[in-house]
Design a protein that fits this description.
five-stranded parallel beta sheet, 11 helices
Length: 399
């Protein structure tokens, strides 16, 4: 019996060895045309291997090129330019490059960049003789893949010696949330919006949620962020998270941290058709035009999004001398200085604006000739501005 078993194993091994690599259709097949899939296929082609990339979407590039990193950063640049955000310190808060900004104005620039990136990827694959197959892939066995066309009619099989799975990720869609892509949508649906909302609730204050919240706030949209975590982006250093929170609040974004969403409803025949109910004893209701349900999103581009967004947020808060690790004080000197500067800003605000406002409210009950609230706050703004400038110059000199 042992001799028969050994002979059977030897026969199977001989049969396996008889299948040479050249008998496969491809040496390497990559499922997914995102950045990792592109690199794998092109590197294989550069060393003389027969490579192919399978992509079910008509546009190559995956989430990175079509809905994630590149579109969101281009969208942000379009917002920053058309809203005149960078020039408001000189021309005033009401300055805009274009007064009536539409979603088409923003998407025009995004679509141009996306088309350019797709052309670059296709050209690179063609130049390296990597075959692009537009189909849905399914494994039949470890070396056989069944391809189904986009229409669902044609099917065929291909074989490969090695297979790389690089299909990426997508935003999760809970079944109890009535997504429609226009009033309740994920971050992947932003590029398909038909018009800009007047109010927006962002459920989930992750990196992508905060990024889009600040973008829409720069366009004048009333934005509310809801997150069950008590701090904004808790994986960051505490002082960076506090500084980012300050910047977001200065952008007129309402933040409801430490509050959980119980359910989201769609209403008909009202001016604000989306209602978000919070999971607490009072079941608070928030109404808005649109909602980004972004709490459960997980994409492979979160680290890149975080670094670029944080760079933009920090550059608008901290002096330039603190943004480079080669400053005189060194990286260790940045943390206490930034913390002290932030606390000083808060204290100056309370001393010059909030406390006088409370005094005004108390005296308004007995005095009828007190100056209005608007003039009081207006007189406090130059004091705050001078204090901010003095603190920034002091930190720059200390570094």
């Amino acid at each position: 019996m042992d001799s028969k078993a050994e002979s059977a194993v030897k026969a199977a091994n001989k049969t396996t060895k008889a299948v040479k690599k050249s008998d496969y259709d491809y040496d390497l097949v990559v499922i997914g045309s995102g950045p990792s899939g592109q690199r794998a296929a092109i590197q294989a082609a550069k060393i003389g291997k027969r490579a192919a990339v399978i992509e079910r979407a008509r546009a190559v590039g995956g989430v990175c090129v079509n809905t994630g990193t590149i579109p969101s950063k281009t969208f942000r640049e379009a917002v920053m330019h058309l809203s005149g955000f960078r020039e408001r310190g000189i021309y005033g808060a009401s300055y805009r490059v274009k007064q009536d900004i539409s979603i088409d104005d923003l998407l025009y620039r995004v679509q141009q960049v996306v088309r350019s990136e797709i052309d670059v990827i296709r050209n690179q694959m063609t130049r390296n003789r990597v075959e692009l197959i537009e189909s849905t892939a399914r494994f039949v066995d470890p070396h056989t893949i069944e391809l189904q066309s986009a229409t669902g009619h044609g099917r065929r099989q291909i074989t490969a010696d090695k297979v790389v799975i690089a299909c990426g990720t997508e935003a999760a869609r809970d079944s109890h949330i009535p997504f429609d892509g226009q009033r309740i949508f994920t971050s992947d649906d932003v590029l398909a919006l038909e018009f800009l909302p007047r109010s927006l609730i962002v459920v989930g204050a992750g990196v992508i949620g905060v990024e889009y919240a600040t973008m829409f706030a720069a366009l004048g949209v009333r934005v509310t962020i809801v997150d069950k975590r008590p701090t904004l982006l808790p994986f960051l250093d505490h002082e960076i998270s506090a500084a980012l929170t300050y910047v977001v609040q200065q952008s007129n974004v309402t933040m409801r941290l430490g509050e959980e969403v119980a359910e989201i409803h769609m209403l008909e025949g009202v001016s604000k058709p989306v209602e978000v109910r919070q999971a607490d004893s009072t079941l608070k209701k928030l109404a808005c035009k649109k909602t980004i349900a972004n709490a459960f999103q997980s994409t492979s581009t979160s680290k890149a999004t975080s670094s670029i967004f944080m760079l933009w947020a920090m550059s608008s808060v901290f002096p330039r001398s603190l943004q480079h690790p080669t400053n005189k004080g060194g990286p260790q000197a940045v943390t206490p200085l930034v913390c002290a500067w932030t606390m000083k800003v808060v204290s100056d605000y309370f001393l010059t604006a909030f406390i006088p406002f409370l005094k005004y409210q108390r005296s308004a009950k007995t005095k009828t000739n007190s100056r209005p609230q608007a003039s009081l706050m207006k007189s406090a703004r130059p004091i705050i501005a001078r204090s901010l400038a003095a603190r920034s110059s002091a930190i720059a000199q200390a570094c």
